[in-house]
Amino acid sequence: MVGPAFTYFLKTRIQTIKRGSGYRVINSRYNIRLLQLAQEILDTNGRRYDSRLMKHQAEGVRFLEQCLGGCLIGDDMGIGKTFQVLAFMERYASIFQRVLVIVPAFLLGNWEAEIRKWFPDMTFGAMLDRTNAKINLISYTSFVRYYDKIRKWRFDWDQIVFDEAHYLQNRDAKRTKYCLAYSRRVPSVIFLTGTPFCNRPSELFYMLQRLDRYRFGTKAEYGAKFCDAKKTDYGWDYSGASNLPQLRKEIKHIAIRRTKAILKGLPKRIKPIVIWIPGDQRPVADHLEKERVAAMDQKKPVVEAWIKNFIHRPDKLIVFGYHRAILIDLAKQFNGALLLGGMTKDKRTRTESSFKDPKGPQILFANLEVAGLGLNLQCANYQLHIELCWNALLHRQGMDRSYRIGQKNPVFIYYLLQRGGVDEILWRVYGKKLVNFDTVFPDPVQVKAAVKEIHLEVGHA
């Protein structure tokens, strides 16, 4: 139910749209849809939300109402972002008759499963089939591949949902250009992502500009204000961060983020344990990737010893890594399940199901960039991160594969890193990126726990 302040806002917004600035604006489909939605929200004020919604999910639907269906939902993984959006569509079914959902290819099955589970009467289909379904699904890859054809089709979308919207952070990528350009004709746009920005505030700009272009202005204005912009010999550098507390205030009306600290009933997540082993590397900036491979070769005997010690336990384990060859070798050695890039949707689903089976493999070896998204792996309450990614937030996403709604046991997270090498450099960068992220999207309930560090004096190969 909306409060009196928002009721006043809606009525004012309705009058503004009605007054418009000429016949074209008053009668544009864009404004007519917004007008209809605003009026519908007023008319349904007082009607109970779907009883299956948890308290925080009902608040998410209410936030979507306040944004007139256009916002960034940056909730932690496992909070139920998809369900909130589907509940909003269902509540205002007369307004959102045609919805386009663009997702990474490996999440198409997740959306289909969620729709079948929660709203079995809601029709869905593939966008490329040009069906009359309410929800039309397409992957980012297919959208870019067939964009020239898609933009010529006369679809009257009432809403577009971009899932894992951090895919739209690179302004030079066709994916970003095509998706944002196509969304301009649609009155309601929702961005869903558990990591609103992965490394720096500049990655937020294109989503924020699409939602409120008047407040956030041009890239230059935004960069000067929030990215500590610097002019270099190669142009402007927006890789920094500045005025982040002010940015947090300015996005409150269009962005919301909740963490699992608000959930009741989840078991305790033990603070991450970082195990440092000796190393003799001195990274050279031009060869960091080679240094990462060399570091992993040195750590591998320690990783193997750690896993051999673990397999006597009854619990399941996820080993997150980066390099494909290492993960394949470990999976063969320990007869584990393997999840890598390039797998088909069916093979990925079979791997996930096999690992979830109590009689299935005890260990899942997974590339963090692939398995850090879209998986529900509550069956495993132990994780071992053997390599660090450039994207700091991916490790948090990886943790959330196990620590989410449905988890019954305490979750233990381990990092196995090497001192004096590339791991140490990435760990420092990792910390700085997380500080920036937590400043813009703070956890209002739980103070961020520090990690526990253990320094081992062990030999290395």
Written description of the protein model:
The structure is a single chain. This protein folds into two domains: 48-258, Tandem AAA-ATPase domain (Rossmann fold), CATH 3.40.50.10810; 273-455, P-loop containing nucleotide triphosphate hydrolases (Rossmann fold), CATH 3.40.50. The protein contains 19 helices and 16 strands. It has helices spanning 4-19, 23-27, 29-43, 55-66, 81-91, 108-118, 140-145, 147-150, 174-183, 205-211, 213-216, 219-226, 244-250, 288-310, 324-334, 345-356, 368-371, 392-399, 422-440, and strands spanning 71-73, 99-103, 124-126, 135-139, 159-163, 188-192, 230-232, 235-237, 255-256, 273-277, 317-321, 337-339, 363-367, 382-385, 412-418, 452-455. The longest helix has 23 residues, at 288-310. The chain is globular, with a radius of gyration of 23 Å. The relative contact order is 0.11. Mean pLDDT is 83; it is low at 21-27 and 445-449.
Helix and strand arrangement:
Layout (H helix, E strand, L loop, with lengths): L3 H16 L3 H5 L1 H15 L11 H12 L4 E3 L7 H11 L7 E5 L4 H11 L5 E3 L8 E5 H6 L1 H4 L8 E5 L10 H10 L4 E5 L12 H7 L1 H4 L2 H8 L3 E3 L2 E3 L6 H7 L4 E2 L16 E5 L10 H23 L6 E5 L2 H11 L2 E3 L5 H12 L6 E5 H4 L10 E4 L6 H8 L12 E7 L3 H19 L11 E4 L6
Parallel strand pairs: 1-6, 1-9, 2-4, 2-5, 3-4, 5-6, 10-15, 10-16, 11-13, 11-14, 12-13, 14-15
Antiparallel strand pairs: 7-8
Helix pairs in contact: 1-3, 4-5
